[in-house]
Write a structure and sequence with these properties.
about 325 residues, alpha+beta, SH3 type barrels, five-stranded antiparallel beta sheet, 6 helices, 14 strands, elongated, nucleus, zinc, zinc-finger, Znf_RING/FYVE/PHD
C-alpha cells in the first residue's frame, strides 16, 4: 500500500470528522486498510483513504496517484511535505501556487476542524471555505442504503471521511450527503446527538458559504432529543426526570435553539416536558410501566427524533460503520 508502512505514525480520520494520532501495526494491501493503534492503546482497522501519513518516500511521487512528476515538478505541501500533481489535488492547484506557502486539503482540514464546528476566522478558515466548494469524490458513485443514511464506501462530508449520520452530522437538503459537525462553519451552537432539526445546504450546493436554518421543535421533539442524547452519552436507557432530564434541558436551554419554545418561563418547562413524556407512549416508556420508579423515563426505541418529512415514524436501523467507534464520547 503506497505511502504507508508498518510502524509509521499517522493521522486517522474518525467518524466524527476529526483526525487522531496513531501508529500503523499492520497493512492490508488487498482491502486497502491498516490496523492502527491509537494513543489510548485501542486498535482498529482504518481505510487507507482515511489515513494521512507524515512520511515522504525517497522517490518523489504524487501522494494521490503514486506517479512521478510529469512535465512539471510536483507541488509540495508546506506542512506535510507530500507532493501533488496539480490536477490530482481537489481543487486543482493553480499554476502560480508557491510550494513555500501552499497547503494541501488534508492539512487544511486537519487544522480547521473542531468539535462544535470548524474555525470561522483566519487563514485556515478561508482556505477551508475554498476547499469546500468541491468534493474530492463523485457523489453519484456512492452506494446508499434505502433511507440514504449510510453508504458502502463510508465516504461523507467535504473530507471524504467515515461518518455516522446520528452522531453530530447534518444532511444537505439539496444533495442529500451527510456532513460532520466538525467540518461545518455555519453552526452557532454544538449539535446534540441525533439533532436533525436543521435545514442545511452545503457549500457545494450553495456555491459559497453554507446556509442553515433551525426547524421548529415541539415539546415531544425536545423530550425525545434530550433522552436520545443522554442515552448515548451515559450508555443507559432510563433517566430521572428532575435530576437528569429537566436538569440537562435547563442547563442547555439557550444552546438548544428552541425557537417559539425558548421564551417558556422556567417554572412552565417542567409541566410541558413531563406532559410530553406521559402523553406519547409510542415514543417514551415510564418507570412505572416496568415496575420501576415512576420518575424514570426512557425511549421505546433508541433512535433520533423523527422529522415531519420522514417517511417512517422512527428510523430504527443502526448506522453502519466498518471501523466501529474507536472510543465512547
Amino acid at each position: 500500500m503506497g505511502g504507508v508502512s508498518e510502524g509509521d505514525d499517522v493521522l486517522a480520520r474518525w467518524s466524527d470528522g476529526l483526525l487522531y494520532l496513531g501508529n500503523v501495526k499492520r497493512v492490508d494491501g488487498v482491502k486497502q486498510c491498516c490496523l492502527v493503534r491509537f494513543e489510548d492503546n485501542s486498535e482498529f482497522w482504518v481505510l487507507r483513504k482515511d489515513i494521512h501519513s507524515f512520511s515522504v518516500g525517497v522517490e518523489e511521487v504524487c501522494c494521490v496517484c503514486d506517479a512521478p512528476p510529469l512535465k512539471e515538478p510536483l507541488i509540495n505541501c508546506l506542512k506535510c511535505r507530500h507532493g501533488y500533481h496539480p490536477e490530482c489535488h481537489t481543487p486543482s492547484i493553480e499554476p502560480e501556487a508557491d510550494s513555500n506557502s501552499w497547503i494541501c486539503r488534508q492539512c487544511v482540514f486537519a487544522v480547521a476542524t473542531k468539535r462544535g464546528g470548524a474555525i470561522k476566522r483566519g487563514r485556515f478558515a478561508r482556505l477551508m471555505q475554498i476547499m469546500k466548494l468541491r468534493l474530492p469524490y463523485q457523489l453519484s458513485s456512492l452506494d446508499w442504503d434505502p433511507q440514504h443514511l449510510t453508504n458502502q464506501q463510508q465516504c461523507y462530508c467535504y473530507c471524504a471521511g467515515p461518518g455516522e449520520w446520528n452522531l453530530k452530522m447534518l444532511q444537505c437538503g439539496s444533495c442529500g450527503q451527510w456532513f460532520h459537525e466538525a467540518c461545518t462553519q455555519c453552526l452557532t451552537k454544538p449539535l446534540l446527538y441525533g439533532d436533525r432539526f436543521y435545514e442545511f445546504q452545503c457549500s457545494v450546493c450553495a456555491s459559497g458559504p453554507e446556509t442553515i436554518q433551525r426547524l421548529p421543535m415541539s415539546w415531544v421533539d425536545l423530550a425525545h432529543l434530550v433522552l436520545y442524547h443522554l442515552s448515548l452519552c451515559c450508555k443507559r436507557k432510563y433517566f430521572d426526570f428532575d435530576h437528569e432530564i429537566m436538569s440537562f434541558a435547563n442547563e442547555n436551554w439557550d444552546s438548544l435553539l428552541l425557537g417559539s419554545l425558548s421564551d417558556t418561563p422556567r417554572q412552565d418547562r417542567c409541566h410541558n416536558l413531563l406532559n410530553a413524556l406521559n402523553s406519547n407512549k409510542d415514543r417514551f416508556v415510564s418507570g412505572k410501566e416496568i415496575k420501576k420508579k415512576k420518575c424514570l423515563f426512557g425511549l421505546q426505541v433508541r433512535a433520533p427524533p423523527p422529522l415531519t418529512s420522514d417517511s417512517s415514524p422512527l428510523i430504527t436501523d443502526p448506522p453502519i460503520n466498518i471501523t466501529q467507534r474507536r472510543r465512547s464520547e
